[in-house]
Each structure stands twice: as structure tokens, then as C-alpha cells.
């Protein structure tokens, strides 16, 4: 009999021992921190993800739980070049090793290539998916090629006219100097 696992309160140890597998496609609205970072509507946007548990033998212990997690979404954002909407695909694929406590995680973090997390019986998998998607988001959203022509230079006609009208301070001095000589 296969055990049912819930992504909002995942028993990581049981999931890894049974080599469990979960996958889902959720509405983007289910991930509130992602929704805060997008522009436009999240309606119709989805987050697809997969999680696989694995129990690996470890030297000096009975083994350790691992989680292989991947996810992807297409996020509506604003292009910082043309300021028009752009759909940005984001995704990740990461392995996590679970340890007994924070002290162990801190002690082993510098030497491990994988990410370390503290084991819990009610692990919030969707929060981890959201964290990883937030980390995968581009710092600046840009079209590969903007759909509109962009001006090559910025010029403000009022600023240029004001600069021309303003007399140069040395020209005023030159005029004063000429007046004294005559």
C-alpha cells in the first residue's frame, strides 16, 4: 500500500524511505510571495513541480533523507527596457539533504555541495518551491528583442531650451570687463 503524501505538510523521512514521488500544477495565486513580485494578473498562470524522495546510505549512520525538487513557471513581469509586459520563464532543479537539526546544518553547510535542510514531519514543500522560484527569478526582466523601437538617446526639449537661454557666467564677466575698458 502506497502512502499518500501532502505537499503542504510532507513527512520528509517517510517520503524518502518510500522513495515517494509527488508532482503538481498549481495556480500561481497559491504562491503569494511570487504574486507580489509579478506585474499584471496571475490569472491563468501556473507553477509546475516535481518532488522525489530518496534514502541514501551515509557513513556512520542508518542513512539520510534526500529530496530532488524541480519546478517551473512563466511569470508576467515588466520589461525594464521598454516598460511593456514580458513573460519570463523561470525554473529550478535542486537536491536537498535533510539533517537532524540546525547545528548539524550549520556545521556541514560549508563542505556540502547540496543544500541542507532540517528534517520535519510537516515540511511545507510548496513554500520551498516558492523559495526556489523566487531565487530563480531574473534580477531585471527584459525582452530578448523589445516589440517597440526604443529611442537611442533621451532628450528633453524644455531642458535643452533652458540651457541655451541661460547666459554663460563668464560671458557676463567678459561683458563687464569690456564696459570698464571703454
Protein architecture, described:
The structure is a single chain. This protein has six helices and five strands, in the order H-E-H-E-E-E-H-E-H-H-H. It has 182 residues and is of the alpha+beta class. A hairpin with a 6-residue loop joins strand 3 (61-78) and strand 4 (85-99). The longest helix has 13 residues, at 169-181. The mean pLDDT is 87.
Pick out its properties.
182 residues; alpha+beta; 5-stranded mixed β-sheet; 6 helices; 5 strands; 31% strand
SSE arrangement:
Elements: H1 12-17, E1 21-27, H2 32-36, E2 46-58, E3 61-78, E4 85-99, H3 102-109, E5 115-118, H4 125-136, H5 157-165, H6 169-181
Parallel strand pairs: 4-5
Antiparallel strand pairs: 1-2, 2-3, 3-4
Order of helices and strands: HEHEEEHEHHH
Total strand segments: 5
Radius of gyration: 29 Å
Structural class: alpha+beta
Report helical residue fraction. 25-40%
Report the average pLDDT across residues: 87
Quick summary:
By secondary structure, this protein is an alpha+beta fold.
Amino acid at each position: 500500500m502506497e502512502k499518500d503524501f501532502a505537499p503542504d505538510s510532507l513527512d520528509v523521512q517517510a517520503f524518502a524511505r518510500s522513495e515517494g514521488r509527488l508532482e503538481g500544477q498549481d495556480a500561481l495565486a497559491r504562491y503569494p510571495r511570487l504574486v507580489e513580485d509579478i506585474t499584471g494578473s496571475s490569472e491563468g498562470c501556473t507553477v509546475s513541480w516535481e518532488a522525489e524522495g530518496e534514502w541514501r546510505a551515509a557513513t556512520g549512520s542508518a542513512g539520510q533523507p534526500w529530496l530532488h525538487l524541480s519546478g517551473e513557471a512563466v511569470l508576467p513581469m515588466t520589461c525594464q527596457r521598454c516598460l511593456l509586459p514580458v513573460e519570463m520563464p523561470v525554473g529550478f532543479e535542486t537536491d536537498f539533504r535533510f539533517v537532524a537539526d540546525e547545528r548539524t546544518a550549520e556545521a556541514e553547510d560549508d563542505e556540502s555541495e547540496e543544500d541542507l535542510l532540517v528534517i520535519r514531519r510537516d515540511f511545507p514543500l510548496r513554500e520551498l518551491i516558492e523559495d526556489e522560484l523566487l531565487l530563480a527569478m531574473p534580477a531585471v526582466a527584459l525582452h530578448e528583442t523589445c516589440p517597440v523601437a526604443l529611442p537611442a538617446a533621451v532628450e528633453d526639449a524644455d531642458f535643452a531650451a533652458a540651457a541655451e537661454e541661460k547666459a554663460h557666467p563668464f560671458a557676463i564677466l567678459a561683458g563687464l570687463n569690456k564696459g570698464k575698458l571703454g
